[in-house]
Amino acid sequence: MRSSEMRPKSPWGERFGGLARRRIPWVTPLYVGAVQAGAYATARLPRERRVELLRRHSTNVGNLRAGRWGTLVTSAAFVEEPLPVPYGAALLAALGTAEARWGPRRAAGVFAAGHIGASLLVYGGLRARGRGKDLPEATVRALDVGASYGFYATFGALAATVPHRGARAAATAGLLAHGIRPVLRPGRTFTDAGHLTALALGLAIGTGTGTRARRGAGAGTRAGRGAGAGTGAGMGAVVRGGQARP
């Protein structure tokens, strides 16, 4: 019998070894790599065919009004152009950190809640805005694909779960300011409102998680109020006049 087999196994080694294996992000690089590979593949298509493909998988008013709810999922697999290196790196960092901290299932849940939730809320806001009148064709048939809603939600959830109260408050305030600024400008788009909405959803999810994990709910309550205000501001921007991306 080998000497290694004779040594008693340490429960601490097994515990930390299993933890390390579970917390190494693997879904994130697969997802981001697949999105980037798909972007380069679609970029090689003729322009008309590429636009048709992206529009078919967009969460625009036309698709959702027609009951094409599958676009709520497939839209996260497409982007209009290959991801720039800084954005791709930020996406990898945020999603990878969430996966390492929470595990792939919960991290994917936060991403999906932001992506699907913001898409539906923006759709509802646009339908409310267009009640009694026709929406611009550019809005109805807009190209609306990408991972940005899920990215913003994940970033918000990570910020809301920062352990230190002061750092958590600063991160939350900074992200809300970053999300609100675009919706205040005259040339805002419904995508800007969607980013703010997704960010607020992520902050709310992270606040709920952090509140349960910490003693005392005072800080969590304040962050939750900020998240709720962000969601309301995002929806208000959609109803007041967010336009489709050019």
Automatic annotation (TrEMBL):
Composition bias type Low complexity, residue spans: 236-246
Main location: membrane
Location of this chain's protein in the cell: Membrane
SUPFAM superfamilies named among the record's database cross-references: Rhomboid-like
Gly residues: bias regions: 217-235
Region (Disordered): 212-246
Record keywords: Membrane, Transmembrane, Transmembrane helix
Entry membrane topology: Multi-pass membrane protein
The UniProt record lists the keyword Transmembrane: yes
UniProt xrefs under InterPro entries: Rhomboid-like_sf, Rhomboid_2
Name of the protein described by the UniProt record: Rhomboid family protein
Species: Streptomyces halobius
